[in-house]
Amino acid sequence: MALRSSKSTYGAVAVTLHWLIAIAILYMVFLGKTMDDDYVAIQLHKSLGITILALSVLRLGWRLVNPAPPLPEGMSALERFAARATHWIFYILMIGIPLSGWALVSTSSFATKIWGTVTLPKLPGFAGLDENALEAAHDRLEGIHETVAFWPLLALVALHVLAALKHHFWNRDNVLTRMLPFLPAPRSSS
After folding, report:
1. Residues 23 and 37 sit within 8 Å (Cβ to Cβ)
2. For 115-122, what is the mean pLDDT?
3. CB 11 within 8 A of CB 2
4. What is the third-level CATH fold of 12-179?
5. Is the torsion defined by CA of 158, 91, 14, 121 positive or negative?
6. Single pTM value for the model
């Protein structure tokens, strides 16, 4: 598999980043719902969140210099719009959710060590806040982070998976096989 995307398939870099981020996000949702007050799980959640942020920024940069393969010609204008919008909303969430988590931990007095080594600095704007302002910001950011990181993300993942399956089994085009190169192309329904 080539590193760069072609007219018919995604390249190895895009495929690898896609699946690393997808697996990490699904694990993060599970971890976020089950970690309770477990210190180790919370630190893992924070470390994985910053890793997802870094990988997502890398993936966005790669996408900008290495465009995705074109969508199938038979797609309607509405389907093309939905596909593009879904991908851009994914980028917004893959970057925005970890940033909201980083903002949330910036309201805490506890240090966050990424993978137990590097101390995560507080985001600008939080250093000079008094205790009451930090507590108010913490409560608001926690609600935002938990809300956006669960239902909207899971709904988008479900839509993405269902659309890929629709393309493979109903439309019988190469949309799914572009990201799963080991999967055989669907047989034409004609």
Report:
1. no
2. 93
3. yes
4. Fumarate Reductase Cytochrome B subunit (1.20.950)
5. negative
6. 0.89
